[in-house]
Amino acid sequence: ITIDNVKGDVVIIASAEGGVEIEETAKTNPEKIIKFYLQGERTLNEARWAPIAAQLFSDVRLQKSATSIVEKLLKLFFEKDCSLAEINPFVINGEGNLMAADAKVIIDDNALYRQEAKRQPTVASIAMQSKATFEWPRLRQLDLTMRPSRLQIEQ
User: Fold this and answer.
1) How far apart (Å, rounded) are the C-alpha atoms in residues 103 and 117?
2) Which end of the chain, N or C, is less surrounded by CB atoms within 10 Å?
3) Is the predicted pLDDT of residue 90 greater than 80, yes or no?
4) What are the backbone angles phi and psi of residue 71, rounded to the nearest 5°?
5) CA 96, CA 108: separation in Å to the nearest integer?
6) pLDDT single digits (tens) 22-46
7) Residue 57 predicted with pLDDT over 50
């Protein structure tokens, strides 16, 4: 999912070809690349999306799974002010379920101030606010749990 600056719209770019080198597929077999424009919407229009999902996956169960994952990725794209939210590649695990094998997210630099405002304060940010004095009661209220380093999208 990215922004097509020429068309001024958000676009989902996909291919049933598989593999991680979609750029190479675009060069060698551009007809295998599918572009789905949101047409100003922030969610999938399922009536328009269903034929695309069918082109990508012949199994109806995988079409539904892919649709669910793409809907969640779109939500992340808009909530986090992304310029790119990518899953590449999708894989089918041993149980026949669709999963994201790798993901990449780029947050628009122009929107970082909005994301900073949403983020919980960290020990470092509190220390920067008051170099001489730590507010220990406030520090104890922070969520200091470890967070995963990779993007995870719940299915």
Assistant:
1) 24
2) C
3) yes
4) -60, -40
5) 35
6) 778 888 889 999 999 999 999 999 9
7) yes
Q: Phi/psi of residue 106, each to 5°?
A: -120, 125
Strand partners, 103: 87
DSSP assignment of 91-115: EE-TTS-EEES-EEEEE-GGGHHHH
Per the structure block, which two tokens stand in for 90? 């999708």
Burial of 13 (0-12, 13-18, 19+ CB in 10 A): middle
Look at residue 20 in the predicted model and tell me its pLDDT.
Answer: 60
Q: How far apart are CA 109 and CA 84, in angstroms?
A: 12
Q: How far is 79 from 111, CA to CA, in rounded Å?
A: 11
Token digits for 150?
Answer: 């990779």
Instruction: Give the C-alpha separation, 55 to 72, whole Å.
Output: 20
Strands 33-37 and 98-100: unpaired
Write the burial class of residue 76 (CB in 10 Å: 0-12 exposed, 13-18 middle, 19+ buried).
middle
Question: What is the mean predicted confidence (pLDDT) over 74-90?
Answer: 92
The pLDDT tens digits for 99-155 are 988 899 998 888 777 766 666 555 555 444 444 444 444 434 444 333 443 444 444
Q: Structure tokens of 62?
A: 């995988």
